[in-house]
Amino acid sequence: MSSDLREIYRTYEDLLADVDREFGRVRDMFIDRMQCRQGCSSCCSQLFSISAIEGAYISKAVKELEPEAREQMRQRAREYLTELTSGAFDETHSAEEHSRVVGEALDRLVGRHHIPCPALVDDACSIYGNRPILACKYGIPLWNPKKPNVLQACELNFTDGEVIEAEGLVEPQMQLEYRWLSFKASVGEELDLPDLVATVASAVVFDCEALLEDGISSSPAT
User: Fold this and answer.
1) How far apart are CA 190 and CA 182, in angstroms?
2) Helix (H, G, I), strand (E, B) or coil at 163
3) Is the pLDDT of residue 71 over 70?
4) How far from chain centre, in Å, is Cα 220?
5) Helix or strand run (H / E) with residue 141
6) How many CB atoms lie within 10 A of CB 151?
7) Which residues, 6+ apart, have CB-to-CB distance to 94 below 8 Å?
8) How far from chain centre, in Å, is Cα 112?
9) Does the predicted TM-score (pTM) go above 0.85?
10) Distance between CA atoms of 62 and 71, rounded to whole angstroms?
11) By CB neighbour count within 10 A (0-12 exposed, 13-18 middle, 19+ buried), where does 5 fall?
12) How far is CA 53 from the centre of its chain?
């Protein structure tokens, strides 16, 4: 692993740690409402896309699994992508074609379809320390820059349409969100990363670390 990739991971891990701390703080504010615990995996069937950085960090974890566990997860990921794309998934696709097929499927199915994450084993995440940002914070009332006037939360913890006291919730999440967006943008610009759509399953099947490594090797700074 190049020193530049290690630095990207260190910065990302610092952000993950801060997201985790904020999740814990807000969870404690609503501790009597929270159902989030090992064995509750309803959020692990949501459809969402991930960034190149998240994909690389997931691919790294997959490569570190024991061979049998790794192949089992990859098979679940192939089945996930086949279901998601209604059979259009092809492991020989280029990154661009895979992105197009997955992006079209997510546009069509987000909020209307659910598929268990391929990393889910016995209702627990088998790559827990490398899960994407959204998976680290889902469950608490969340601020979304695309819907800034609405707090979103797991329906097991809060009822749809419920008024949630927002004091002390929004500003820390805004700071973390914009820090994350800035970090993604700076890495993407520095490494000239293509604008691709991927899922956790994509990062299990394909080596997304290679995308960052290729960007690092071709960066003028190197």
Assistant:
1) 12
2) coil
3) yes
4) 29
5) none
6) 20
7) none
8) 19
9) yes
10) 9
11) middle
12) 9
By three-state DSSP, how is residue 165 classified?
A: coil
Candidates 202, 30, 5; CA nearest to 105 is: 202
Q: Which residues pair with 138 in a beta bridge?
A: 140
């016995």: which residue's tokens? 122
Q: In 10 A of CB 40, how many CB atoms?
A: 16
88 phi and psi angles, rounded to 5 deg:
-80, -10
Residue 22 tokens, joined? 């904020």
Question: Which amino acid belongs to residue 50?
Answer: I
Owner of token pair 């998601």: 84
Looking at the predicted structure, is the pLDDT value of residue 113 above 60?
yes
By residue count, the chain amounts to 222
DSSP 133-178: HHHHHBTB-EEETTEEEEEE--TTTS-TT-----TTTHHHHHHHHH
Q: Which two tokens stand for residue 90?
A: 């092809």
pLDDT of residue 2: 58
Q: Can you state the percent helix, strand and coil of the chain, rounding each to 5?
A: 55, 10, 35
